[in-house]
Amino acid sequence: MAGLCLRDAVHRLGSAAAPFVYASFVGSLDGRIALRDPQAGTSHLPVEITSGNDFRLFLELQAQADCLITHGGYLRDLAAGRLDDVLQIGTQDAGRDLGRWRQENGLAPQPAVVIASASLDFPIPDSLARASQRVLIATGRQAPPDRVEALRARGYPVVVAGDGASVEGAPLVRELGALGFRSLYLLAGPRMLSTMLRDGVLSRLYLTVAHRLLGGESFHTMTEGPGLGDAGRLRLSSLHYDSAAPDGAGQWFARFEPQRPA
Ligand SMILES: NC(=O)c1ccc[n+]([C@@H]2O[C@H](COP(=O)([O-])OP(=O)(O)OC[C@H]3O[C@@H](n4cnc5c(N)ncnc54)[C@H](OP(=O)(O)O)[C@@H]3O)[C@@H](O)[C@H]2O)c1
């Protein structure tokens, strides 16, 4: 499967006026993307639905981004040691070649990182400064003003995208396009995917479906908030089948494009 997502060349599909916005998820046949532990207040990606092939494709997608859009929740999980740091290209064994791939394809050594947050209560990992990555913060107009000022005082540009506390998809994409970013990868979760779909600015969704049912009473799925209506209509544009992983169960690698109204 290595090379499957690099061949899509998503880094060439966007423009400053219309950045290419893409996301990827891995889930089970019953639609779980993470299982929750309500008592501990934590969630985790079950190993039963992960595979080496899926991780490689994730790294290939990330390597094609001018800009990664992550969020405050991920940085809190990172600081607590619950998740690995995947904010740099070429640092994982499965993707050592991807730093050179970026260089050969005219991309900056590392993508910029946008941190979306309503609370603005997150630590900024040292890895971003070590890798000389450009860091921007995105929030809504109702965000705590003292935290906005504190972040600006530390030298982080704060993009206000949305009239509430949360970041909205369309103004964020417009602002990032104006800053010259053409390929925006959502290294985020259900809230960010939902706002991008609702605002009609998602360009593509990559979805790995592991062929097993997870069950469980408390879980996350790919979307959240009010019903998506027609914004949730997608068209399959590519499908690959891997019969071996994870753990012999099999998995589909699917690629979908949102269906815009005629
Ligand atoms: N299987 C997969 O492919 C996959 C993919 C993604 C996530 N997951 C997992 O699914 C679970 C839920 O995902 P998640 O943590 O990403 O949940 P989420 O509810 O989408 O996002 C959580 C945090 O991100 C910030 N955020 C997200 N969207 C925002 C927006 N539009 N505006 C402002 N802030 C925003 C908020 O931070 P503040 O509190 O700082 O305001 C929020 O608390 C996690 O366990 C995650 O690891 C799995």
TrEMBL record:
Source domain of life: Bacteria
Give a yes or no for keyword Nucleotide-binding in this entry.
Answer: no
Record's keyword terms, sorted? NADP, Oxidoreductase
Family annotation (Pfam families): RibD_C
Name the SUPFAM superfamilies for this protein: Dihydrofolate reductase-like
Matching entries from InterPro entries are given as: DHFR-like_dom_sf, RibDG_C, Riboflavin_Biosynth_HTPR
Kindly list the residue ranges recorded as spanning the membrane: none
> Bacterial bifunctional deaminase-reductase C-terminal domain spans which residues?
19-236
Pathway, per record = Cofactor biosynthesis; riboflavin biosynthesis
Name of the featured protein: Riboflavin biosynthesis pyrimidine reductase
